[in-house]
Design a protein that fits this description.
- The chain is an all-alpha fold.
- The protein has one domain (about 5-75).
- Helices cover about 50% and strands about 0% of the residues.
- The chain is globular, with a radius of gyration of 13 Å.
- Bound molecules: zinc ion.
- The site of zinc ion has 4 residues, from helix 2.
């Protein structure tokens, strides 16, 4: 399964861990469960940005997804992950 196939499954509501590259979906829902899965509109926005090569938008959305995951883990904290520098081109 390549990244695009994984992202398309995720957008359709099936978060699958990619064993080929050992990669999680952008919101980690494959390994953390659907309780941390991003809304469909944001999943689609991520896929669109990925296909367009729009890395800044991908990074912004990943920051948003991380904030949601941390909010599940630490419900008593008011967590913001704005402007998070997500490993520059680390997945290239
Ligand atoms: Zn995973």
């Amino acid at each position: 399964m390549n990244c695009e196939e994984q992202l398309r499954l995720w957008v359709s509501g099936e978060p699958m861990h990619n064993d080929e590259g050992d990669e999680c979906t952008p919101d980690l829902a494959c390994c953390r469960g659907k309780k941390v899965m991003a809304p469909e509109s944001e999943r689609q926005a991520f896929l669109d940005a990925y296909l367009a090569g729009d890395r800044p938008t991908c990074k912004t959305l990943i920051s948003k997804f991380l904030t949601a995951i941390l909010s599940v883990d630490f419900p008593d904290l008011d967590i913001q992950v704005n402007g998070f520098e997500w490993g520059k081109d680390a997945d290239q």
